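Write out this protein's structure.
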Amino acid sequence: MYRLLAAVAASLILIFLVLPLVAVFTSLQWTQVVVNLYDPLVFSAMRLSLVTSIISVAASVLLGTPLAYILARGHFRGKRLVGALVELPMVLPPAVAGVALLLAFGRQGLVGRYLGFGLSFSTLAVILAQVFVAAPLYIRAARGSFTAVDLDLERVSLTLGVPPSRTFYRVTIPLSLPGLFGGMIMTWARAMGEFGATIMFAGNLQGVTRTLPLAIYTAMQSDFSAAMVMSALMIIVSVAVLLLARGVLRHPEWGEGSVAEH
């Protein structure tokens, strides 16, 4: 009886989660798919989303990797607080994140007032919003990857006279690559799908801040067919990202192979 109830409950939640996604594809007007994909407004939103999300991931990796390493290996007072602050944007409501960014980097914000100009309602604002909500995903994944690396391997490298910086790039990074790459993939997906903080902080300006999620929101008011096509595209991208991330994380020996090559 217990197994039957568990199976029914599992089936119900699975159907509930999958049915809306299936509905998007079954409702598509396939004759309009190609037309909508080549629509200048749709193409502009796709291009902006790709460019800004790639830049956001690059910034997250460049700035987040050192922080993740410090959180994984460092011992200092307030470490738990720093870790909590880093992960806080992941649980903030998107609207709150947008208001916070506006109050910090807007024309009258904490930073904007000293710059003499605001960073809001610009393409840079889109990137800042994406980094704010997505970088914690990468930092969390990178921190876990660095923590999982066997310290004895690093010690052996150091005893052989290899400098700490070279040990980091030749031993620590290769061993952490699967987790780092998985974190990058999930960060990119989060940046691509960002909506709330973007519309609050960057606005919805065609060709400037209107990313694909914002274009879907806009199309819902005038061209529902285009909204469905863009939604289907986002679902396909999301599924591909999840499969890629799972494939990478399923093969931790990738990192060991990389070390062996060096």
